[in-house]
Structures are given as structure tokens and as C-alpha cells.
Amino acid sequence: MGRSVLVTGGNRGIGLAIAQRLAADGNSVTVTSRSGEPVEGLSVVKCDVRDAESVDAAFTEVEQAQGPVEVLVANAGITKDQLLALMKEDAFTDVLDTNLVGAYRVAKRAVRGMMKMRRGRMIFISSVVGLYGSGGQANYAASKAGLVGLARSLARELGSRGITANVVAPGFVESDMTAVLSEERKAQIIGAVPLGRYAAADEVAGAVAFLASPDGGYVTGAVIPVDGGLGMGH
Ligand code: NDP
Does residue 200 belong to any structural domain of this protein? Predict the structure, then answer.
């Protein structure tokens, strides 16, 4: 059996590409989804990252099936875009609760097992907009910037236990999340990206696979942009 990997929101989009890549690299991979519906070729557990009990139950199931989680990919995320003047408070707190507090919940549940094993990799999926900013996405950008502070603090806290914590910051990727953008907004985005295109989800998965691999063993507290140059390495 390969290393025990859990990818939150790995049932579709970027998370699915990450899960498939880590499985192809020889790991034992489980993905979470809120429905618990099967995903071809991967084990699935039901989990809502807004609920600590649901997170705990999902981890217990994974531990029984494939051992304590050694590689955690905190990928689950949502958007609720709106200009600040019009943004209701629950649009702000819902996005923070899923994207940032959800990442805290899964990291907290994973850390005990990793500390016992004295090894582990935590990889948080942020976004270019966390550091770049994005009009109409104050909630989302704040949640994604928060992941950087979370990961860097965990890198400091857990380094002595052989646990790394890193962030992957994708630019714009073809997925359900970006399918809702208008053609005008998509053209605007592509115009600002030096590589002049969206990323494929597999290109994000490649950076995650590196951080999870032996080659990534001395990398911690890093933010790896996979954004076609949009953030110029920030
Ligand atoms: P999708 O909208 O395609 O998928 C979102 C995933 O998150 C789904 O698997 C969904 O599960 C899961 N999810 C949402 N809410 C919860 C919750 N409360 N509990 C558990 N799982 C949840 O998004 P992408 O694949 O595009 O995005 C994946 C990650 O990458 C996100 O964190 C996103 O912010 C980030 N990202 C995306 C970019 C893009 O351009 N697409 C760019 C930069 C970052 P379910 O199927 O159950 O709803």
C-alpha cells in the first residue's frame, strides 16, 4: 500500500486532477465529497469541511481503510463573489468558513497522526488572488491569503516533527468554478496572464505532486504559484 493521502473536494475539478495524479504516483488516495457519490478509480468519503464532526468521521474512515493520513491536500473551496458595498455578511463568513476554517479543521484533525508518525505533508490550495487581490472577491481573496499565514505558521510549528506545510497558488484554471465567469471577464483574465491561457488542472496537480514527493522533502512554508505568470512569482 502506498502512502495514505486525503484530498478534500477531490471528487471534481482541480482536486480530482490532484487525486488522480497522486494515485498514479503510487499513493493510496481517498477524496472527500459532500454527497459521498462514487468517483471512478478512487475511494470516497463523505465530508463537509464546515463541520468538525464530519471531518473527524471522514478521517476515521480513511485511517481504517488506508492508515493515518500522511499527505493532506486541503483543496475544498467556494466563491461567493460580490462587490464589498453589496456583500452580505454571510457571503463573507461562508467563504471564510469553507476555505480557511475548513482548512484549519482538516489540518487539526490530520496533525495528531502526522506527529505520531513524525512525518507528513500538508498542502493548501490557495489562489493567485490571495496575494494579488481581486475586485469583487474580498471574501475569497481574504480566505486564500489566510491560508498562507496558516501554512507558514504550521511550517514553523511542525518542522521539528518532520511535517511540511506549503501552499499552491493556482491562477485561473478550467473548472466548474471558472465556468460561471462571463466571456468578457475570461478574455480580461487571459489578457493579463503572460502565458495567455488558463491552466489545465493537471498543471496544478504537478506542483502538488512535487510537494508530496521525496523531491519536495526540504520545501516548507513556500507558496508555489501555478498562474501563468500573473502574480510574477509572489
Ligand atoms: P470546483 O468548484 O470545481 O470544486 C470545488 C470542490 O470543493 C468540490 O469538490 C466541492 O465538493 C468542494 N467543496 C466545496 N465546499 C465544500 C465543503 N463545505 N466541504 C467539503 N467540500 C467542499 O472548484 P475548483 O476545482 O476550481 O477549485 C478547487 C480549489 O482550487 C478551490 O479551493 C479553489 O478556490 C482553488 N482555485 C481554483 C481556481 C480556478 O480557477 N478554478 C484558481 C485558484 C484556486 P462538492 O462536489 O461536494 O460540492
Answer: yes
